[in-house]
Amino acid sequence: MNKKSFIVPHDFTSVGDIALEHAIAVAEPLDAQIFLLHVVAREKDINEAEKNLEKVCDKFKDSKVQLIPNVRRGSIFEDIGDFAAEHHSELIFMGTHGAKGWQHLTGSYALKVVTSSSVPFIIVQDKSIKQDGYNDIVVPMDLNKETKQKLGMVANLAQYFNSRVHVLVPEESDEFLKHHAQANIQFAKKFFKQREVNMEHRFISKSDFDQEVVNYSVSVNADLLAIMNLNRSGVMGVIGNNYEQHLITNEAKIPVLIVNPIDQGPATGYSTAFG
């Protein structure tokens, strides 16, 4: 049986180290291995990059997780998806520097890093993971059918960390949309109850929804936000528009789980990482 594996793209900064901290916290009890990935543009930079990755590995040598350094020549925006497919990795932990650095995820081009891979991402800023992991996970749910797909990964993380899940739904005045929102809540309740995950829900203002999500997350001291990458306009916005960009670089520096939609059932995607 192949060992579970995660990927941490690392650019030799403190944010890269923090992303690795998050990955180790999830990987350690699962006996998963972590691939440390650095991408260089020029062949002559490979040797120095390999030495720097070895230093990172040495810095985290006291962890119980196997760290495997990998240096590739290419583009970070194009190669992560290929690397994940090659190694059958199930989750990618990636740091963002906000408006600068080769890992920043504020522009539409940089967001191709997420879109290029079917593997879910956890995007972290310079905020270390708590000792007991992701205690509170906030899950905004829109009216797109794909929104349910992130529930599988959320449930797996919640089971592992014994987390509380907070489902946020936009307040709707239209009766049809209101009924749809209620149906999504009932679906989520049943889904999490079957998996013995503690869930609560709340309606919040549809106006300025992304900021309302951040405000609520701060109020419950959330450790993780979970969103979909729909890559198109929708009720609540999509990757590449202000909604997801705001959440990814939220001022509270809460890590963000991003799940790419698949063609399978509504909530079956990406459960294997913790199955």
Enumerate how many helices there are, as a single number: 8
SSE ordering: EHEHEHEHEEHEHEHEHE
Radius of gyration: 18 Å
What order do the strands of the largest sheet run in, or round the barrel if closed? 3-2-1-4-5-10-9-6-7-8
Major sheet:
10 strands, mixed
Query: What assembly state would you assign to the polypeptide chains in this entry?
Result: single chain
* Strand content bin: 15-25%
- Examine the coordinates and then state which fold CATH places here, giving the name of the CATH topology of the largest domain: Rossmann fold
Descriptive keywords:
alpha/beta, Rossmann fold, elongated, 275 residues
Overview of this protein structure:
- By secondary structure, this protein is α/β, with parallel strands linked by helices.
- The protein has two domains: 5-124, HUPs (Rossmann fold), CATH 3.40.50.620; 136-274, HUPs (Rossmann fold).
- Helices cover 34% and strands 21% of the residues.
- The chain contains eight helices and ten strands.
- Strands 3-2-1-4-5-10-9-6-7-8 form a ten-stranded mixed sheet, with helices on both faces.
- Helix 7 (209-219) runs parallel beside helix 8 (242-248).
